[in-house]
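Encoded backbone
================
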Amino acid sequence: MGLIHPTDLGAWQTSIAARQSPLRRTRHRFRSQAPEPAVLLNPGPDSEVLIVVDSLSPSQLAALVAPMAHLAADRVAVLTTPAASAGSQFGQHLESLPITEEAELTRALPGLRCVVAVGDYMRLGALAGSSATHTDAAFLVVQHGILTPFAPPLRSGAELLAWSEADANYWTAGRSDVSARTVGSQLLFAAHRRAAELPPRSSQNSLTYLGQLHGHELPRRLMARAAVNFCRSNDAVYRPHPSEIDLISRLQHRLWRMRGIRFDLTNRPLTELDTEVVSAFSTGVLEAAAAGMSSWVDFPDPPAWLRETWKRYGMQRYGTDASRPTFASADEPARVIAHIIEERVAQRR
């Protein structure tokens, strides 16, 4: 099974909105229609590369920020949110500029040659995508998580930098207007490298369930039932996803704690925990496996697309042999991505 919406971004956005909870849809309906603010860091005539960071999630930091270490800082601008711009993830920036529309972004980057993002399905990526079109800049999409049929379509003309050949074929299937290269996953590469630096784990007799209540791929009620039943049956600790901060998730967490479910609220990196890991299909299952931790997937009566996803990533069901990623990188993906960025910049000078 391929993407549900392989080319139509508008249809994808409509389908995602339809899967939101009634409370979230109501809040969105009454929210101000003014454009969300954006901040451009280090704009200027020498900025040939634009990195678009929608959030400071570990997956985006690995996919988008890590390659910056291999690029000349004075040639890279960053488009991000005001909250993210206040952090130290982008190093020292000499200048920042508020951005509300594409024309402002294009004017601020007269030498733009290459845009790097996780896609154009969110506002910042859409702004940068429009600017890339107007300036004939390359638009690179770096894969930052597991692909399912519910993934957004690639922008026409985009070049995908995929984790594996299977993922590249999956996301570009039936498309002649996009291209792809396999670069590996910086997230998994870093997990494997970090594990080698840590002392041996004393044991792995505890079990942690990675929450995914924020996701739209499966109904929340089924995800919640799968999580709580697994934790009860296996005395597992529930680790909420960082996005589980909405009102419904917080109420769900409170109810589970009242019913005796234990929670991991330490915010420690997953790969530093002395535990085994289970989830429905979280990227954390692969991250844990890359770090040498035992990990599995579990979901009652999984739909066909979920079984196919498990197979594509080498995820194993709980009760069988532990999962093993089906792909690995000999070279650091961040370095490979930076080299591709340099190539695209040179081609457009």
